[in-house]
């Protein structure tokens, strides 16, 4: 049964509706949208002068018309306290998506807080404080006073290392340059907090340290390069489902041969053909299927390697390309160093790699020829190298990342049209903070320290470790124990006596307790353990800037009110700083109090000007007014100047061959294969029959923090799916929709069986970070040496515990693939 919204009539957008620039608040692609709002008692009409499209809507419109919107794109929200109609629809003029929506972005309107239409009623509207067994709404003053007093008391007793922080570092919803600056200024400038971690990993580090150490920033090309490439190579990513409109609007046209005119125009002196693609992924993802449909099987090479064996493959490809003379000697000599040593150290024969990776040697040779062999007219092949979590959260992050960048550098593909070596990314970026150099490398493994009982107070910004961390079972066990100790004492002291309350909380902390303050837009699983909840505003409820995967920066304009008393995170950070300053002055500690000055922004623009404008490269050319004028196409960072009031950006990085290292030369890195690197992984593989591969799915955004209150998603996925091979299902005696327990030495979780004919024997794929079955429960604590988690290499057992329950009965378990003709 298909999900129905039961909407039979929607208002026409009137000619006078307000139009706001919006960048989709979800994934890295950053599709352009517009939010249209107009008074609740008005509607547009069908004649040209009555509707925003200036069209006669009594006439049938073409199939791909812009004069249309879906029920999920409509809502009734508050603007300056009044109900207004709101439509958020994709922008046909935006070069990122050219009018395409995704199954996530197309629901931004219905995922907004609406009292009139009862959507997202889960949103936090007021500060809440633990009081007598429950969290009760309170004023900002009351909540901030408690937060400041406990935080200051812990710092006085344990030093700043007693304050633990988990914070978003991204753009889009729950982030943006305004908010990363607000939290960054608080924790890195006013204080020097070392025990801090990023939303999706247990330490404060880069996921692409190797690329950066080599002098290659990880977002170095532009989306047009996917249209110009002769070959696309993608390692450990599933862009059809996870970078959807980048894939559909820029990769697919090239695979279909629709970019030929553009190639002729921009690169006219070369031979051109529709692109081919090499996809490295242990499973057959929907991206493989979609590419085969677009480009036919002969132009798609799927290397279905053994989980975690990427490094061996990439080293063999470099070795083979060098042996064949397919590398770019001139580029290597002029712009890099360390090639000879890295080539020698990383040397791997095609046969060795075939053995380790479990793929045919001939396929490794074919892949190398597709990415590196010069074209028949003698021109070097243009190859775009892309990667994401299959590599980043895969085996031996640092070395695998290095081996991939080695390949891109050796073939001379960084800084040229149709090239680039880029992570595909997750969410948008919006990072601007004071220096974090004092944290050191490796950064502290914060989750482990929390498990060990360290720290006294924990500030959490838009993170839900209960769903999105590794070793999650153990983390939750310890965290609940520690936070319950504080809850118990808070129940025993009247909150009116603040000094006594703070003293009681400190007593519990000395006994191993932990006091938790959670800043979020919705109640989270970890938030259940918290003692204070502070409600944040999200994208569209505040002005918010971010950049996408080609460094395209835009301003999403505020188009609706935040719910209740919620406010932007940057202002929450400022108010915490103000309250800490006041507490310290009360205590007579003027010197420390002075460190908390400079947080007097009255709105998010104040934070932007203090942060990005003054600190980002090229920030001096960027302010809200200039960004508004740039609309949904924005500019590509870094800004280099202003011309006639328009910001001038940078289309690609490294076009001059000068890389981001001292001396300007890119570095080839030694990165030898060393098997499954993270502690405990090889033992797991030896001891358990099933690979529990895991990742994202098209409909679900992140940990489903908004989707959990959206029927469209919860109807389709009441439980996380686990894709299974049909023979494995027979042997375990499980059927479609059955609920199974997945367990191993790290913990256990549950999932719903999805029969998948293309799944290999003994290899499953489970939806990651879902509330009704947390995959992180079975991921062990093993990381790489820089504390990057290794989710993808997880092995476990599977057993059925329930036949298809009622909530699953109506679901389809058809193959998700399109037929390939
Ligand atoms: P994943 O599903 O995590 O997605 O985007 P992706 O990295 O594209 O993993 C990609 C692939 O890695 C999977 O197909 C998996 O089979 C493969 N893989 C597993 N093990 C290995 C291995 O050993 N080697 C190789 N080569 N591949 C392996 C993630 C990205 O998606 C992120 S980080 C975020 S934050 C965004 N989240 C998100 C979302 O929540 N939902 C949707 N629909 N899109 C999203 N986009 C972003
Ligand atoms: Fe949104 Fe576009 Fe991604 S619609 S979720 S930014 S593909």
UniProtKB/TrEMBL annotation:
Stretches that traverse the bilayer: none
Keywords from the UniProt entry: Iron, Iron-sulfur, Metal-binding
Classification via Pfam families: Molybdopterin, Molydop_binding, Rieske_3
Domain Molybdopterin oxidoreductase, chain residue ranges per copy: 123-578
Domain Molybdopterin dinucleotide-binding per the UniProt entry, residue ranges: 691-784
All copies of domain Arsenite oxidase subunit AioA/Iodate reductase subunit IdrA 3Fe-4S cluster, residue ranges: 24-119
Statement: the UniProt record of this protein carries the keyword Metal-binding: yes
Keyword Hydrolase included in the entry's annotation: no
Matching InterPro entries: AioA/IdrA_3Fe-4S (IPR041632), AioA/IdrA_lsu (IPR014066), Asp_de-COase-like_dom_sf (IPR009010), MoPterin_dinucl-bd_dom (IPR006657), Mopterin_OxRdtase (IPR006656), Prok_molybdopt-oxidoreductase (IPR050123)
Name recorded for this polypeptide: Arsenite oxidase large subunit
Source organism of this protein record: Pseudovibrio japonicus
Lineage of the organism: Bacteria, Pseudomonadati, Pseudomonadota, Alphaproteobacteria, Hyphomicrobiales
